[in-house]
Specification:
By secondary structure, the protein is α/β, with parallel strands linked by helices. It contains 18 helices and 16 strands. It has an eight-stranded mixed β-sheet with strand order 15-14-13-9-12-11-10-16. A six-stranded parallel β-sheet has the order 5-4-3-6-7-8, with helices on both faces. A two-stranded antiparallel ribbon has the order 1-2. β13 and β14 form a beta hairpin. The longest helix has 20 residues. Keywords: Glycosidase, Hydrolase, NAD, Signal.
Length: 520
């Protein structure tokens, strides 16, 4: 068989897929020297990378939400606490969901948003010139078409996880971000959990030495949730998420575990993923869940109950990522870092262990017998450690985050950092290349397992720029700039709320009139 002709035919087939097609694992690849290599499209002429992308400051951030189910409705609840923003539009396939989210604005004393519904309702929202950001929380298969349409219309996008389901979608989002010079951020909330943020700060300050190994996972029994996922119609017995697991093999939900580890390891900021191999169990439990709901035998349930992916980096480091949503077990993201001077571990017990050299650096008395890093710090020494090395993001947002909530507060911190960076014209905490690297485990792992767990090269999604920046970092404005923006945010929100009562009276009157006409 002519590999080149087959390769190009497959590539053409990918490019002809309609934007709204069901996600497919069909990106072209070939075997070279015993390793699978996928196609890396050349960067179009005149197109520049989007590393450290900055855009003009947005003093008042105007946002539209698409998808108002589990995640979207909760996101709107959190955003009513944010100052300096205005929720302009609310969109869901089902009109009732949009109406329910709008009521959250009423309860918060904010003016109503414009509502959109139906299969293509998001398009009118994305076309609005007075919207800066589209916040996307639809089902997985619609993440990409909504994001693509929004970016084509010049909008920044923030997309729930996983933001792209295959390599075709990934490369298209990269090109759109680079071409349009708009941000494309994945809403990976686990990068904003308190322990992960503090561990990242400790790693950046050198307390762990060289971080050489990391573990991450999504181990979460979804039995209580399978039937709650959105269904297209009465014939849809599985709901979109169980259906997706039935059709696709690979770590389809890698980002919760991978994101925080990748940041600590400076991925595409001095290091990069080079090769991965994946291995899964047979589907023992998952297939039974599908058969129970479908009422017939299922012969090809693609997703194994547990998927294990091993990744090696350019700098010779290793990451292990596990996915298991089928078996009963305590929730775990397996966050674990191993460094040359210490470790960080979150599950099942949070703990930091440091050798004597790092203990001295942290100002902790080495007379306490930690056996040169073989034991976790006690509570008193953990307090000392965090007093000196707590993440500035944790310090800034903890009080409000715990009040507002959202997975314990990390969702609120994630939203706040997104707003902060857009308002100050700073690079976002996660860029389109993070999205690409973390989401790519799904199709790359599937390719590995479908070829007897062979190694698969991980593409350099930056196309040559992975080593331009030395070390991952969060961007911050000056204290003076922060204070000025926060004052402006508060002033805007006070004025906005002053318009709410009048706006709602007008909205309710128009709504009542429309319902009266509809009855006729």
């Amino acid at each position: 068989m002519n590999i080149k002709k087959t390769f190009m035919a497959a590539l053409c087939a990918v490019m002809l897929l309609p934007a709204t097609a069901v996600a497919q694992f069909n990106w072209p690849y070939e075997v070279k020297n015993g390793v699978i290599v996928t196609k890396v499209p050349e960067r179009p002429a005149g197109q520049k990378d989007a590393l450290n992308l900055t855009t003009p400051k947005i003093n008042v951030l105007r946002v539209g939400f698409v998808g108002l189910g589990m995640r979207g409705h909760e996101a709107v609840r959190r955003w009513v606490y944010q100052e300096g923003v205005q929720i302009m539009g609310l969109c869901d396939h089902e009109q009732a969901r949009a109406e329910a989210s709008n009521e959250q604005l009423r309860q918060a004393g904010l003016p109503p948003a414009t509502l959109y519904s139906g299969e293509d309702g998001y398009k009118a929202l994305c076309e609005r010139p007075d919207v800066d950001l589209i916040y996307i929380a639809v089902d997985w298969e619609h993440h990409f078409p909504v994001a693509k349409y929004a970016m084509e219309h010049g909008k920044h996008v923030a997309i729930e996880v996983p933001s792209a389901m295959n390599l075709d979608e990934i490369w298209q989002l990269i090109n759109l971000s680079e071409q349009k010079r708009v941000h494309c951020m994945m809403l990976e909330n686990c990068c904003y959990d308190f322990f992960e943020l503090n561990s990242l700060n400790l790693a950046q300050k050198g307390l762990f030495g060289e971080v050489i190994f990391g573990q991450g996972a999504y181990r979460h029994d979804l039995d209580p949730f399978w039937d709650a996922y959105w269904k297209r119609d009465a014939n849809d017995k599985l709901g979109w998420r169980l259906d997706y697991n039935m059709k696709y093999r690979g770590d389809v939900y890698a980002t919760h575990g991978l994101g925080p580890v990748a940041q600590c390891m400076n991925i595409h900021r001095g290091d990069r993923f080079t090769i991965l191999t994946a291995m899964d169990t047979k589907s023992f439990a998952g297939v039974k869940k599908a058969e129970k709901r479908l009422g017939h035998k299922v012969d090809n349930f693609r997703q194994g109950d547990l998927t294990n992916t091993m990744i090696r980096t350019e700098q010779g480091k290793v990451i292990q990522i596990v996915h298991d949503v089928m078996t009963p077990q305590p929730y775990s993201r397996m966050f674990h870092l191993v460094g040359t001077h210490g470790v960080s571990n979150k599950y099942p017990v949070e703990g930091i262990a440091l050798d004597n050299e790092s203990l001295k650096k942290a100002g902790i008395d080495t007379k306490t017998n930690y056996y040169n890093g073989e034991a976790f710090l006690n509570d008193a020494d953990m307090k000392k450690l965090y007093a000196k090395y707590q993440s500035p993001i944790v310090t800034k947002y903890t009080e409000m985050a715990k009040k507002v909530g959202g997975h314990g507060g990390m969702d609120f911190i994630m939203d706040s950092r997104l707003i902060y960076c857009l308002q100050h014209g700073l690079p976002l905490d996660m860029d389109v290349y993070d999205l690409a690297e973390w989401c790519s485990l799904a199709e790359l792992g599937s390719i590995s397992m479908d070829n007897n767990c062979i190694g698969v090269e991980v593409p350099d999604f930056t196309r040559g720029h992975w080593n331009d920046q030395k070390g991952y970092r969060h961007a911050f404005a000056s204290p003076e700039e922060e204070a000025a923006q926060e004052a402006a945010n508060h002033e805007f929100t006070v004025k906005l709320k002053a318009t709410a009562e009048k706006a709602w009276k007008k909205y309710d009157k128009k709504n009542a009139k429309n319902k009266k006409v509809a009855k006729k």
